[in-house]
Amino acid sequence: MHEEPFNLLGVSPDDWAHTPEVVQLALLSLLAIVRAQRAQIKELQTLVRELQAKLGQTSRTSSKPPSSDPPAAPPRPPRPARGRKAGGQVGHEGHQRPLVPPEQVHDPIELQPPWCPRCQTALGAELPDAAPLRRTQIYELPPIEPLITEYRQHTVCCPLCQQFVSAELPVDAPPGAFGPRATALMAILRGRYRLSLDQVEEFLADVCGLPIASASIVRGCERVSAALGPIDTAIQKAIQTQPHVNVDATSWPSATRTGWLWVAVSAVAVCFRICTGRGQDELRALLSDSYRGIVSSDRLSASKLLPNEQRQLCWSHLVRNLLGLQERYDDESGWAQQLLEQTEHLFFAWHAYKDGWYDQVALQQALLAVRLAMQERLRAGVRSPHPQIAGLSRELLAQWEALWTFSRVEGVEPTNNAAERALRPAVLWRKGCFGARSAEGCRFVERLLSVRATCVQQERALFAFVTAAVQAAWANQPAPPLVSSP
After folding, report:
1. SS3 21
2. Looking at residue 312, what DSSP letter applies?
3. Could you tell me how far CA 362 lies from the centroid of its own chain?
4. What are phi and psi of 434, to 5 degrees?
5. Do 261 and 426 form a contact (C-beta atoms < 8 A)?
6. What is the spatial distance between Cα 273 and Cα 290, in angstroms, rounded to a whole number?
7. Distance from C-alpha of 382 to C-alpha of 394, rounded to nearest angstrom
C-alpha cells in the first residue's frame, strides 16, 4: 500500500486538497526525482563500501598471498611474548653433525703429541697409543674441473667390398655436448634454484668451468623434461589412486593467455599441472573422472564437481573471509565475531586430537556444540541485509558436510595448508621467470616441480635422481622409479 503524497511532503490533507493541480503535479514530479536519487545514493553507497573493502583486502582478510600486501597494509598482530631470549633455550639438546665412518674419510691426518705439557718430555711415535680421538672432520669441495670425453670414430676400409665404414657412437652417448650430470644441473639451477638463463650461464662458467651459451641451457632443460616425462606420468597416476589429496591453484602466465598452475598433494607424491582455466574440466583432468577419494581445497567452485562427502573445505580460508567481513561491515551484528569464536573452539579441539588427547569419537563430540552454534549463526546470516554475509551463509549451508569431513575421516586435516606450502616454491619461481612462453616450457615446469616436490617428500636427493633419469633416458632404459606403481 503506497503512502499518500501529502504525508510524504509533510502537509495536511486539507492543504493538499486546496493546492492547485499544477503545483501538485510539480511536487509529485520532484518527489519521484528524490525517490530515484535516494535509491541511487543507496546503491552507490553499497558500491563504494564494496570497493573500499576490496581495496583494503590483505592476506589476513582474504585468500591473497602475503606478497601482494601493499606497503600501507597494517602489520600482522604480533605473537604474544613468551619471555624467552632468542636462540637455543637452557636444557635444549644440541644438534651436531654426525661423524662419517673412517672408511669414508678421504684424507686422514694423524696427529701425534710432540711432548708432555706437564714435564716437557719428548714423546716419540714408538710409544703405545690409545685409540685416536675422532671429533674433528673438515668438509671441503674439490677443485671443479670438467671431465671431457672425446669420441674418436675411426674409419676403415672393408677389404672385401672396399666400402669405408665409420664407427657409430654408443647407444648411451649424450645427444649434445654435455653429459647427464651437467645437463641435470642446468635444469635444477633453472627450476629448483630459480636462476635466470644468464645466471645459470655465469654459474656454470665461473664455478664449474663449463663454457656454455643460453641456447644450450634451454636445450638441456628440454632434454631433462623429456627424461622426466614417464616419471611425471607415474606421479599423476599415483595421485589418482590416493584416498586423500589436497588441491589448490595459482596463476601461471603463458605466451597467449593467463594459465593456472594446479597442484595435488598426497601422502606419496605431489603433482603439478598447468592448464588454461581453473574449472571442473581441469580438476577432472588432474584427478580423473573415476576419483573416489577425498579432496581438500578452498571454496573453489571447481571442487563442487564432487559431492560434499568427498570434500573438505579449508577453515583457514574461511577464517580470513570472516575477518574480512568483520572489517567490511564493522561487525554491526556480531555475526562474524561469533563465528570466529566458534572457529577457535574448533581448532582447540583439533589440536587436542593431534596431540593425542582426543580420539576420533571424542573429537566429534567436542565439535558437536560448535556445529550447532555455527549452523544457527549461518541460518541467521541468510537473512542479513548485507549481501556478502547472506551469500557466504547460503554457500556454507549448501556445503555444510564438506566443512566437517576431517572430524570423521582419519588423515584429513581442516586446512589446505599442504597444498599452499607446495605452491610456495612455484610462486617464487613465477615471480622471477614470469611464467612459461611455450607448451614445452609448461611441461618442463610441471615435471620438474612434480619430481622436486616428490623427492623432498620422500627425502631423496633431487640432483642424483634427475641425473639417473637422464642417464636412463639416453641409454633407452626404463626410468628410475620414484613412486610405486598403482
Report:
1. helix
2. E
3. 32
4. 60, 35
5. yes
6. 18
7. 6
Residue 262 to residue 280: CA distance in whole angstroms = 12
- φ and ψ of 228, to 5 deg: -85, -5
Q: Pinpoint the alpha helices (H) of 166-305.
A: 180-191, 197-206, 214-239, 280-287
- Tell me the Ramachandran region of residue 476: left when phi exceeds 0, alpha when psi lies from -120 to 50, beta otherwise: left
Measured distance between the N- and C-terminal CA atoms of the chain, rounded to whole angstroms: 70
Pairing assessment for the beta strands 244-253 and 258-265 based on DSSP bridges: antiparallel
Largest Cα–Cα distance of the chain, in whole Å? 134
Residue pair 153/168 in contact by the 8 Å Cβ criterion: yes
Nearest to 467 by CA among 182, 148, 88: 182
Cell of 386: 548485507
H or E segment and range at residue 462: helix 462-474
Residue 395 three-state SS: helix
Sign of CA dihedral 321, 322, 323, 326: positive
Which value, to the nearest 10 degrees, does the dihedral of the CA atoms of residues 58, 62, 68, 72 take?
A: 0
Between the alpha carbon of residue 58 and those of residues 63, 200, 326, 327, the distances in Å are 8, 35, 13, 11
Length of the chain: 486
| Strands (DSSP E) found in 107-185 | 155-157, 164-166
Instruction: Report which of 394, 395, 416, 419 is spatially closest to residue 405, judged by C-alpha positions.
Output: 416
E strand map for 93-218: 155-157, 164-166
DSSP letter, residue 115: B
Rounded alpha-carbon distances, angstroms, from residue 152 to 149, 178, 364, 390 = 10, 16, 73, 77
Coil vs helix vs strand at 110: coil
| DSSP bridge partners of 263 | 248, 272
The pLDDT value recorded for residue 1 is 43
For the chain (length 486 residues), average pLDDT per consecutive 10?
A: 55 65 70 80 77 64 58 65 71 80 88 85 77 86 90 90 89 89 94 92 92 92 94 94 93 80 94 89 89 90 87 92 81 81 92 90 92 92 87 92 92 92 91 83 92 94 95 92 78
| Cβ partners under 8 Å of residue 182, min gap 6 | 146, 204, 208, 210, 220
- Residue 287, φ and ψ in degrees, nearest 5: -105, -15
CA 286, distance to chain mean position in Å, is 16
Identify which of 290, 234, 154 has the alpha carbon closest to the alpha carbon of residue 447. 234
On the CB side of 3, how many CA atoms lie within 13 Å of its CA?
9
